[in-house]
Amino acid sequence: MTSNTGKPDVIYSQTLEKVTDFVFDDKVADVFRDMIGRSVPGYGSLVSMIPVLAREYVQPASHCYDLGCSLGAVTLALRHSILGDDVKIVAVDNSSAMVSKCQDYINNDASDIPVEIICDDIRNIEIIKASFVALNFTLQFITPDERLTILKRIFDGMNNNGVLLLSEKICFDNERDQQWMTDLHVAFKKANGYSDMEISQKRSALENVLIPETLDVHKKRLHEAGFEKVIVWYQCFNFISLLAIK
Ligand SMILES: C[S@@+](CC[C@H](N)C(=O)[O-])C[C@H]1O[C@@H](n2cnc3c(N)ncnc32)[C@H](O)[C@@H]1O
Predict the structure, then answer these.
(1) If we measure between CA atoms, which residue out of 18, 3, 41 comes closest to residue 188?
(2) Could you report the per-residue pLDDT of 104-152, keeping only the tens digit for each?
(3) CA end-to-end distance (rounded Å), the chain
(4) Are 144 and 211 contacting, i.e. CB atoms less than 8 angstroms apart?
(5) Domain of 169: which CATH number?
(6) CB distance 216 to ligand 1 below 6 Å
(7) How far is the CA of 88 from the centre of ligand 1 (A)?
(8) Is the CB of 39 within 6 Å of ligand 1?
(9) Closest approach atom of ligand 1 to CA 29
């Protein structure tokens, strides 16, 4: 089974002499829609719920931020569901390959809700009058000791009753659950046509780049950043999504 979204991901399908750290370069951007759909359990269902969340939380005359936007899946879902007036979406990614493809998708999209696409590190982005902020599988690529600063800055730039959507791959604090969910994640990737070698080479490439933490650590950090209401609204194996309300 392969997804019908873009070029097929064959990046790790041949034996590599040396597996280097994963980067969001042209090669990855080219196959990213296929890659994320076949690698992140529940990704499609999660994104399909964004319109429901947008209608609930996006406020008139506010900003929405898609931090680590990649090809703009969240931005597009927001763009097609925002009802209020005078809303702008700011989509940010530090991969020029992703940003350039994201811009193409936005240019070919009919909605007239303004989108500003910025090629920069999310650590440099000022958040202002935000009613909806998405970190959809992005925070996991930032070193853990920098995560609180980012969340605090997001909290400070948000309107009251605004929402942060934080989606992450998580780990577990006991070996049994860790193995259990890892096995199911591997089974998911195999069901999507990835071979054992592809799965193993990709795992090595991501090892030092994607740092998962436990749900408890994420919840505590969100509270420390200032969010009082925090809840898991979505989970598929070891991939979760939280809502944090200011
Ligand atoms: C797994 S992808 C996110 C998927 C995307 N949000 C979606 O829903 O389709 C992670 C993205 O975060 C970007 N990224 C990682 N670290 C970043 C940083 N420090 N600043 C900006 N973008 C970053 C990567 O370039 C990549 O495009």
Answers:
(1) 41
(2) 999 999 999 999 999 999 999 999 999 999 999 999 999 999 999 999 9
(3) 41
(4) yes
(5) 3.40.50.150
(6) no
(7) 20
(8) no
(9) 27
